[in-house]
Each structure stands twice: as structure tokens, then as C-alpha cells.
């Protein structure tokens, strides 16, 4: 019996499917198709080159995604790029979000979030993730970048602030707006559709 994890390296068809998923994730994070292609290629090369280090404790897909995630984080850490749009610019959703709350910051009557049903079944539902991606793509680039760095890549707020040259208070405001806009979009495009 062969116990070498590298012996079970992916077949070409599996690699093509994985590459498609990796590209979707990288494009969502980077908002730059060419850079996403480059970083995915680097991740795949690194995975293949280091396949003998794959221990088999996780699925190959999980292992390769972690390599990609680290490549994206490295890109953000070393990149001198700054967002082209202002991180404090109102993308049109500020008034819509403010209408949800009263002067004390409590939900206005009838505008509380709808019940999302069973969260676990939504998380495994492919359609949910497609709509999530659509909603994230509807955000302006700089807001989506801050959200992705914090929630999808797991960077600390202080590191995001340093990389994007923004104050911590501004970062928290951008994250709040992103979460609120994402919630509204998901309620409209996912939860509202499911309840019909």
C-alpha cells in the first residue's frame, strides 16, 4: 500500500476544476484579473513543487487554498498599491443603511433582519456562495478589499490599516458599511428569494 501523499496528486481534470475555484477566490480578493491569474499560478506551482510536503491530513483542495490565501496576504503585505477610490467615499449605501436604525442606533420597527433559517444549510449551498460573490462584487472596490482582507483572509485590523494607510476608526466604519451592505444584498437576493 502506497502511503506517500504526493503519489495521489491531482489528476489534470481535478486541477482544472480547482484552478477555476482558486481564480474566483483570487479575483474576488484582488479585483485584478491579471494579478489573480499570476498569484493562482504561483500557488499551483508552489503546491506542485512542494507536493512531497503534503501530509494528507487535509484535502488537497484545502491545502492548495491555504497556499493561495498566503500568497494573497503576501501580495497585500508587499504591495505598494493604494486603492484608487477613497476608503471614506460614500458608495450610495450610507443613506440606505442609516434608514435601518433610529436615533439611538436600534433597529427601526419592521426593518430588523429577517430570519435566515438554518445557517449550516445555507453555507453548504453553492447558490448562496454565488450570490455572496455577486453581492461582494456590487460593493465598491476599496470597501470590498477591506472586507475581504479582514473576513476572508483573516488579517488583523491593524495590519489592514497599515497596508491601506487608513485609521483604525475608518477601517471599522468601512467594515460596518460592508457588512450592512452585504446583509441588505443577501436579504434581497438570497433570503427574499428563498422565502417566496
UniProtKB/TrEMBL annotation:
GO terms for molecular function: DNA binding; sigma factor activity. The keyword Transcription applies. One of its GO terms (biological process) is DNA-templated transcription initiation. Residues 135-182 form the RNA polymerase sigma factor 70 region 4 type domain. It comes from the Bacteria. InterPro entries: RNA_pol_sigma-24-rel, RNA_pol_sigma-70-like, RNA_pol_sigma-70_dom, RNA_pol_sigma70_r2, RNA_pol_sigma70_r4_t2, RNA_pol_sigma_r2, RNA_pol_sigma_r3/r4-like, WH-like_DNA-bd_sf. It holds the Pfam family Sigma70_r4_2. Keywords: DNA-binding, Sigma factor, Transcription, Transcription regulation. Residues 18-81 form the RNA polymerase sigma-70 region domain. The keyword Transcription regulation applies. Belongs to the sigma-70 factor family. ECF subfamily. PANTHER family: RNA POLYMERASE ECF-TYPE SIGMA FACTO, RNA POLYMERASE SIGMA FACTOR HI_1459-RELATED. This is RNA polymerase subunit sigma. It comes from Solemya elarraichensis gill symbiont.
Amino acid at each position: 500500500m502506497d502511503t506517500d501523499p504526493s503519489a495521489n496528486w491531482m489528476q489534470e481534470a481535478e486541477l482544472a476544476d480547482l484552478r477555476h475555484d482558486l481564480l474566483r477566490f483570487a479575483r474576488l480578493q484582488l479585483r485584478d484579473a491579471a494579478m489573480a491569474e499570476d498569484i493562482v499560478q504561483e500557488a499551483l506551482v508552489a503546491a506542485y513543487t512542494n507536493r512531497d510536503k503534503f501530509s494528507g491530513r487535509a484535502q488537497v483542495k484545502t491545502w492548495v487554498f491555504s497556499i493561495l490565501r498566503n500568497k494573497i496576504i503576501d501580495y497585500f503585505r508587499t504591495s505598494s498599491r493604494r486603492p484608487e477610490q477613497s476608503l471614506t467615499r460614500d458608495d450610495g449605501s450610507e443613506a440606505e443603511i442609516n434608514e435601518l436604525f433610529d436615533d439611538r442606533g436600534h433597529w427601526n420597527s419592521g426593518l430588523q433582519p429577517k430570519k435566515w433559517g438554518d445557517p449550516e444549510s445555507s453555507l453548504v449551498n453553492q447558490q448562496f456562495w454565488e450570490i455572496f460573490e455577486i453581492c461582494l462584487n456590487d460593493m465598491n472596490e476599496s470597501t470590498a478589499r477591506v472586507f475581504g482582507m479582514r473576513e476572508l483572509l483573516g488579517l488583523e485590523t491593524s495590519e489592514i490599516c497599515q497596508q491601506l494607510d487608513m485609521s483604525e476608526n475608518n477601517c471599522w466604519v468601512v467594515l460596518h458599511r460592508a457588512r450592512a451592505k452585504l446583509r441588505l444584498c443577501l436579504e434581497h437576493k438570497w433570503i427574499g428569494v428563498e422565502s417566496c
